[in-house]
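Many introductory courses stop at the sequence. We go one step further.
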Amino acid sequence: MIATYLKAPFQFEQRNVPIPEIGPDDVLFKVKACGFCGHDMILAKYAAKDWEPFGHEMSGVVEKVGANVRHLAVGDKVVLETSTFNPLSASSRNGRVDLDKDIINYMVPRTSMGFAEYTVAPASLCVKFDNMSFIEGSMIEPLGVAVDMFKVAEVGLNDDVLVVGIGPIGLMAIQLVKAAGARKIYAAGLSKSPKRAELAKKFGADEVIYTDVVDLKTYPFERGGVDKVLLTAPPALIEPCTHTLNMGGILSFIGIAYGEGAMASFDSNLVHHRKIQIRASDAVPALYFPMCIDLVESGKVDLKSLVSHTFQLKDAVESLKAYINDPANAVKAIMTNE
């Protein structure tokens, strides 16, 4: 079968490798669609020091089931959680499955991941669906990330909300914030991505702020600031975002960076006296997939509009390079394997 690999900086290659064998608790997952995500971009840009497989935002069909698998059958359409909680862990038994780190994890070394014809996954990570496309199914994983960040921020009716970073997860978050009854939604992103700004407005943003043109700290928010910030951009933006929050505001963030970029600082007196809360969202273990599938299948969340680039697996090497080199139009790249 064909499997795709990446290595920094921005190198991609395809190899012919054996179809992997499954264990008794696994399934052979025939990949039908897989998204190229921000984490893949970080790997491709600088983090992958050697060749490695990639792709974890995927949907597909069960091709083979292990001897112990009872809840899935060959031919089932499924999306893949990147991890799930251990029901026997202390955190899970105490009712906090979200805090369990004794997880069943897809993100471990393996010969193939989503940018391949097949991958092997623990059967417990597969969630069935019926009434959406495989392309939409490949975006359930990032929608779960957006839902986790949204829940951590506790967005409520009549809140003014700032969503910083209008990549796919930020654009999903805008839709969730709108559905929750936010009074006014501000979206912040870079001016080099007009397509993303256009989608932010389509999904409910009242104003778009270009952070490479305007200083967030001095932006004239209608209420002087906002009640909630959802930050999907690098951690360095935590500091300017604290200046946008009104008294008692909450900042939820998922931005990831490595090395020095992982460090963030802020004015503790400002945070203290405004009673601001800075909360980390980390969708590990992955949760809310049935809810996310319902949101898409019922039409409450639009994922199709996010797809800016599609390509076949056989064309992945050149197509990914083209996507990376098209920032003005790039929103979400999806590989299909039809």
